[in-house]
């Protein structure tokens, strides 16, 4: 189902993604982070739904549908390095800090920071061109809001 999308996303010289495809790619990345600790629970699903509903102006139903599509894409997506680099190429720099904040919201949704989640966030931040300091500041902003 996602084969053509993934082929475009991981092409040698990918074109910027249309808005709908960028939404799906970012949602899949949120799902990947949520699944990184081996548990993908309702608190993480709810958090992803709220993030994408707010970010994209979606109804709860539309957000849940996009998350479900993101779950399917994440399951078929290549390794995190290629997938995240493809997102970096398709997403404008100014949106990447917001992406890191959204990822931290998912990591912190269940109230537990697992080592696997921290390691994946460090990798993803680096691949998105966000340094450790800016990622830590993004995490602190998210922690203050919770």
TrEMBL record:
Coiled coil: none annotated. It holds the Pfam family TerB. Residues 23-140 form the Co-chaperone DjlA N-terminal domain. It comes from the Bacteria. This is Co-chaperone DjlA N-terminal domain-containing protein. It comes from Mameliella alba.
């Amino acid at each position: 189902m996602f084969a053509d999308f993934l082929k475009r996303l991981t092409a040698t010289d990918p074109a910027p993604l249309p808005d709908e495809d960028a939404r799906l790619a970012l949602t899949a990345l949120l799902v990947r982070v949520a699944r990184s600790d081996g548990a993908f629970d309702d608190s993480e699903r709810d958090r992803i739904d709220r993030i994408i509903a707010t970010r994209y102006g979606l109804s709860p139903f539309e957000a849940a549908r996009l998350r479900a599509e993101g779950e399917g894409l994440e399951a078929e997506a290549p390794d995190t390095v290629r997938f995240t680099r493809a997102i970096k190429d398709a997403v404008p720099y100014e949106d990447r800090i917001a992406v890191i904040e959204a990822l931290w919201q998912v990591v912190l949704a269940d109230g537990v920071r697992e080592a696997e989640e921290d390691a994946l966030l460090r990798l993803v931040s680096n691949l998105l061109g966000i340094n450790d300091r800016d990622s830590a500041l993004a995490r602190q902003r998210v922690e203050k809001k919770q």
